[in-house]
User: What shape does this take?
Amino acid sequence: MRLIWATRGRSWGFRFLLDGGYADPLPIYERAFAGVQGERTVCRRVGTLVALRFPDPENRHDDSGRRIPHDLVVLPPLGDDVSSVEDAQRLVWPLLEGAFQRVWDQPRAPSRADVESAFGGRVDPGPEGDAVPSGQ
Assistant: This one.
């Protein structure tokens, strides 16, 4: 599974937890979400990428009371099966929810090692040598 995942935690700000195997996921993220910055939910295809945004399914909020969003850029082949936010919550969220449960309420932003540990160490190098969850 290759995807970019940006979110925030209870007390830490918005950041990339998964980088999709890119050394710098920001350009891909910006391209996928161009023009939909203020939308609360998003499902749009940009070439082979699928940009998704949905509120936390467990209704978690940060310390300021804002509902936590999850922004995902799903790459092929998983993205091939996603055509709605509902698809994402059914197909993609189950792959992430356990890891998020383990890191969302840490007092500081999770490190790369924290994220890898939250995924049970099941992390493989992506195309540029960066980590992505394996076995998905």
The two ends are 5 Å apart (CA to CA).
